[in-house]
């Protein structure tokens, strides 16, 4: 587990927190995914080159943090594969939905 994740889990050493642990971690994960999606949509996808992406630094991030986020997350092979898979999966669902819709007529 990443250092950040380990630091977060240290807050749950109190036995009284154990019951809320999963809900809190699920909520934090959802916030992270939403933020990452928004950053990708607003600051990565509109641009055609790495230089343009790196110049479009969100106002609340330092240039160094943005460079790390772009290179280690948004342009990582793992992220790009997942993103491609998500688009393909969406297209397949759309085709299936359209076929079912047309078969009802």
Whole-number tally of structural domains: 2
Could you give a short account of the major beta sheet? none
Strand content: under 5%
Order of helices and strands: HHHHH
Structural Rg:
19 Å
Structural classification: mainly alpha
- What is the 3D shape? flat
C-alpha end-to-end distance: 52 Å
Low-confidence stretches: none
Overall average pLDDT = 79
Instruction: Please report the total strand number as a whole number.
Output: 0
Number of helices: 5
**Helical percentage:** over 70%
Description:
The protein has 105 residues and is an all-alpha fold. It contains 5 helices and no strands. The protein folds into 2 domains: 25-74; 77-105. Helix content is 75%, strand content 0%. The longest helix is centred in the first third of the chain and has 27 residues, at 18-44.
Q: What is this entry, summarized?
A:
Helix content is 75%, strand content 0%. It has 105 residues and is an all-alpha fold.
Secondary structure: elements and pairs:
Blueprint: H1 3-9, H2 18-44, H3 50-55, H4 63-74, H5 77-103
How would you describe this structure in keywords?
105 residues, mainly alpha
């Amino acid at each position: 587990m990443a250092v950040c994740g380990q630091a977060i889990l240290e807050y749950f050493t109190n036995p009284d927190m154990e019951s809320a642990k999963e809900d809190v971690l699920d909520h934090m994960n959802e916030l992270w995914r939403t933020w990452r999606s928004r950053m990708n949509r607003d600051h990565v996808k509109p641009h055609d080159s790495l230089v343009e992406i790196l110049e479009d630094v969100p106002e609340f991030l330092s240039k160094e943090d943005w460079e790390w986020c772009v290179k280690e997350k948004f342009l990582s092979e793992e992220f790009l594969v997942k993103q491609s898979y998500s688009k393909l999966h969406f297209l397949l669902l759309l085709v299936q939905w359209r076929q079912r819709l047309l078969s009802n007529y």
